Amino acid sequence: MQGKDTTNSTFNQLFEPIFSQKFHQLLQKLEVDKYVKKLTAIKFIILMVFAQLEQLRSLREISNNLCNREFSKAIKLDSISFSQLSRKLRSMMPETVQTLFQDLVRQVGFQTGFKPIRQELGNLYLIDSSIISLCITRYRWASFRKTKGGIKIHLRLRLFEKGVLPDAAIITPAKKADKTQMDELVVESKDAFNVFDRGYLDYKKFDDYCEQGIFFASRLKKNALVEVVKELPVKPGSVIKKDRIVILGKDGLTKMHHPLRSIETEDLNGNPIIIITNNFELPAEEIGDIYRYRWQIELFFKWIKQHLYIKHFYSLSQQAVEMQLYIALIAYCMLKLIKLKTGYEGPLLQIQRLLKTCLYEPFPYFVQKLYRKPKRSSKGRRKIDHERIFQETLRQVIAGEADHLDDLTYDPVIL
């Protein structure tokens, strides 16, 4: 460690958002740390976020990390047993980490300003879910199919100029359908544009959104009943194949009262995609681009599954699993805050990797290493011209100049 000033350490800068006054007041209000002398809520969250970033595989491994004198000094905790961590994980209220997650989202939003990608789009929200498989014999509360268990993260991401940020999260057993969470995830604001997949199709909700002026775009199922009201003109040479005004649903049962817009386009593989929306003002090409932004939420799920520890869980209870998933989202937000604090424009993964080696170093040292340019750059793998080598060797043999070929140190690539 290069400095004694722990207040200016990278560790302190990373975990500084946890010490916000709002979160501290919540802990006091809920009396989370009442009668707690050692493993306070903040220290526990720091331990769990650290475990996420380091991808530690068990509570025992988390406990053993306190043998690291620098880590122990930074967290101000000499030791803690894995059984104490297990009890804390089971007993701590999920509302505590949910509130911290929302507070971190607010902090990131304040620093970025949530500048939209395009001003005319307003606030763009991406909504989707992802299932994490669980062993049904160990997690019986998470029954999904006959021989399979799972837990589902229902997520709303906010898309802005500098990327995406989780804006709201709901964690349920995997059996719950996506559309049951629409009330919690769809932003009912006139300056919002909600984008979600066909798992969120609900004609009654769509009618409500039309009446309230809430814009949305989704993908239509193949077996949907569609009544074409009007064909709209399509620009020649456009990626849009059809643009129609339609009414969805079956007469007397699910038929919508409000018309929607049906736009047919293609994905990158040439497969047809039908997008429905209640926005009749934007060009069809613009609607197609908006729906393609939905892929960002798939990339987000892929990132957290690869680089945070959410495929295996430290405890078997539903509450503990939910806690771990929320803490993973907290860890992501904290990486985002570090990225904003340093002004770094590179990948978030580089910050996570560098934190592992510079966590106890002074923060300026971490920033210096983050911006360090490589001393030499690779020119890539050399391409060998085999035909030229053959022709040169053939010429040497014909000319009687091939004695050097018996030399074991001869490299024919270097001519």
- Mean pLDDT metric: 86
* End-to-end C-alpha gap: 50 Å
Question: What is the global morphology?
Answer: globular
Number of helix segments? 15
Order of helices and strands: HHHHHHHEEEEHEHEEEEEHHHHHH
- How many beta-strand segments? 10
**Which percent range describes the beta-strand content?**
15-25%
Low-confidence stretches: 1-5
Work out the helicity level: 25-40%
Sheet with most strands: 10 strands, mixed
Structural class: alpha+beta
Q: Rg to the nearest angstrom?
A: 28 Å
How would you explain this protein's 3D organization?
About 40% of the residues lie in helices and about 20% in strands. With about 425 residues, the chain is an alpha+beta fold. Strands 1, 2, 3, 4, 5, 6, 7, 8, 9 and 10 form a ten-stranded mixed β-sheet that branches. A hairpin with a 5-residue loop joins β9 and β10. It is globular, with a radius of gyration of 28 Å. Residues about 1-5 have low confidence and may be disordered. GO terms for molecular function: DNA binding; transposase activity. It holds the Pfam family DUF4372.
List the helices and strands and how they pair.
Blueprint (H helix, E strand, L loop, with lengths): L9 H6 L5 H10 L10 H14 L4 H6 L4 H7 L6 H10 L2 H19 L10 E12 L8 E3 L2 E13 L2 E11 L8 H4 L6 E5 L6 H10 L2 E5 L6 E6 L10 E7 L11 E7 L5 E6 L6 H9 L2 H13 L10 H25 L5 H11 L4 H8 L15 H13 L17
Helix pairs in contact: 2-7, 3-12, 7-12, 13-14
